[in-house]
């Protein structure tokens, strides 16, 4: 009996591991062009601002199609839907690696963008089906740790690989990861039936006090962040950092991000409001500093590290706030969080590209800082339902077990180990 239980436990951990790797791969797929703008521009015969559109178009498509495609696939068995999505990512990344021209690259990006939001809308609920009710929060945290890890390390690793071999090789590796996930999924993921359409629950979630403020704050803070982050490679080169040194700077950003995720796990329940405001404020200061002293290389590197430390904590704070504000509709809250996140990514790519083309790369940090400051003001005023001063005892409802909620503070547990 003990052996059977151990096998079951290992299978569950393996299933959560599959979802973690899938999360890491999908977010890295979305954001990788940010670290390879110069190389991809040369390979596709496009400008850096045009390559930035590969991020913007991806994010905007995610924003537009997530709710309708999620509703259309709501009744699909979860494992089958997961496999279809992984196949789409494999095809998308392989097409990117082989793309001879910029239009073909756009087609490759669209394939993944069409299913990206569906995956993120289903993964949290899928993860909770693999574990006992008392561990549902930790299971959700496992999935979102993949998001934080991708934002902190995915782009640096992809950039290093792109510089060492070629940008096309980085997308081949991502396609290979998608194939490996597909191979492991049938043995490790349970076959869970689909659910009802998410349209009505998403609309209902928007009416819950605090959810709209959280969605707007998420959108604006990501808008500010990605205004610069999309074009950070050309910014660093303009600041006197060589192309070969860009990758180590990205790694420094990522290592600082790991510390930021750990800090978020320590603070998300104890001081959720203060920690969020502090993180956003630090991002504003770092971006402002990059605009002011970007010509001084040591200061630039120090500010990049500070930026990475504070930014990496934000997804944990914002996602936790969304789940606490809508404990009865966690899937809908996750969908709205993803939509706001991707609206910020796409909008930031567009804003940063316009500033880059019409004013110059040195002006991009100032624009990013101004936008992030707006997010800070929104969070400051949203002090009741969205970002309360005191920790709440909100719960995350486990799908199919609404009477057996899981404490939301367990979201932080896994973050403390990543």
From TrEMBL:
Coiled-coil residue windows: none
Domain of life: Bacteria
PROSITE patterns with a match to the protein in the record: MFS
A Pfam family that the UniProt record links to this protein: MFS_1
Transmembrane domains' residue ranges: 53-74, 81-100, 106-127, 139-161, 167-189, 210-229, 249-268, 275-295, 301-323, 335-356, 362-382
UniProt cross-references to InterPro entries, sorted A to Z: MFS, MFS_dom, MFS_Efflux_Transporters, MFS_trans_sf
Keywords annotated in UniProt: Cell membrane, Membrane, Transmembrane, Transmembrane helix
Compartments reported by the entry: Cell membrane
UniProt region (Disordered), positions on chain: 395-418
Official protein name in the record: MFS transporter
Originating organism: Rhodococcus jostii
Upper taxonomic lineage: Bacteria, Bacillati, Actinomycetota, Actinomycetes, Mycobacteriales
